[in-house]
Specification:
Elements: H1 2-28, H2 34-41, E1 43-48, E2 57-58, E3 64-65, H3 67-79, E4 82-87, H4 90-98, E5 104-105, H5 113-116, E6 119-121, E7 126-128, E8 130-135, E9 151-153, H6 159-166, E10 170-172, H7 177-186, E11 192-195, H8 196-205, E12 213-217, E13 222-225, E14 228-230, H9 234-249, H10 252-261
Parallel strand pairs: 1-4, 1-5, 9-10
Antiparallel strand pairs: 2-3, 6-14, 7-13, 8-11, 8-12
């Protein structure tokens, strides 16, 4: 009886090993994809900040709204599922993706070769200009060449923070844009960098600050918004790109951009305005 029991255990171990080895090629060749899981559960889990107007923010009724919130929804609609937002601070957003807590990040994520080692990226869906916000009476800073040795209020884990570092600035590490601007207004930082349209939106929401700051456009329009997913999810990535292509072709992306920014930032540099200034 003892020998039979041992044989059964050995057979079970062999079967487990065979099943495991059989499953590995399925993962490697892409037949197991996050898109299948999303369709089975019935909703897309999207990582975003929720504090960066007009990309993702809360309206007066505390609903999550914004350009990227609607981009995420149109992707979910294309896939045929609902959307669920997972709000987190920027410094933790990729950790959530790594842990499998979210399916993708829709938060005006920039592409970098370092990030591309770990994630696959969609085609770009926005083309933005980077700008600097400085105190109105600061006449020393007029371009990126002038910020060496200055203090920039930006997150070190962001592409904007990296741009400040690459330009010779020292970082005052803050995450949210409103806090970054507060650092400049209080004199704790010399400047902060962000997308030009984000600064324009902030001043529209806070007209009392218009006379206190100056916005300096620092770069030409360039690809700026991508959607990252974990590597190996080719079907999910294809669905995202198809959804973006459809929204681009039928004008939905342009409509959303005009709705939230007052200017179309979804076109490539050759087609975009020289300066992304909202129409009056």
């Amino acid at each position: 009886m003892k020998r039979i029991s041992m044989k059964i255990k050995a057979l079970a171990a062999v079967m487990t090993l065979v099943m495991t080895l059989t499953a590995i090629p399925a993962l490697a060749d892409g037949t197991t994809d996050r898109l299948d899981e999303i369709k089975e559960r019935g909703y897309l889990i999207v990582g975003t900040e929720g504090t960066w107007s007009p990309y993702t923010y809360h309206d007066e009724d505390d609903n999550l709204v914004g350009f990227d919130a609607e981009v995420a929804k149109l992707i979910a609609d294309y896939i045929g599922v609902d959307v669920q937002y997972s709000e987190t601070v920027w410094s933790s957003i990729f950790a959530s993706l790594d842990a499998g807590k979210i399916d993708m990040v829709v938060n005006e994520v920039s592409y970098s070769e370092e990030r591309a080692e770990k994630y696959d990226f969609s085609t770009p869906y926005t083309y933005s200009q980077k700008a600097m916000l400085v105190p109105a009476d600061n006449t020393d800073i007029n371009s990126l060449a002038d910020i060496a040795g200055k203090i920039a209020a930006n997150d070190a884990t962001s592409s904007i923070g990296q741009l400040a570092l690459d330009s010779g600035a020292t970082l005052d590490p803050v995450g949210e844009m409103a806090q970054s601007i507060s650092e400049v207004l209080s004199g704790r930082a010399d400047l902060t960098l962000n997308n030009a349209v984000a600064f324009t939106d902030y001043l529209k929401q806070h007209p009392e600050s218009e006379d206190k700051v100056r916005i300096i456009v620092a770069t030409a329009p360039a690809p700026s918004g991508y959607i990252p997913v974990m590597k190996g999810n080719d079907k999910l990535l294809a669905a995202i790109n198809e959804a973006l292509d459809k929204a681009r072709e039928d004008g939905t992306l342009s409509e959303l951009s005009l709705k939230y920014f007052g200017v179309d930032i979804t076109k490539e540099a050759d087609d975009a305005e020289a300066t992304q200034t909202p129409a009056e």
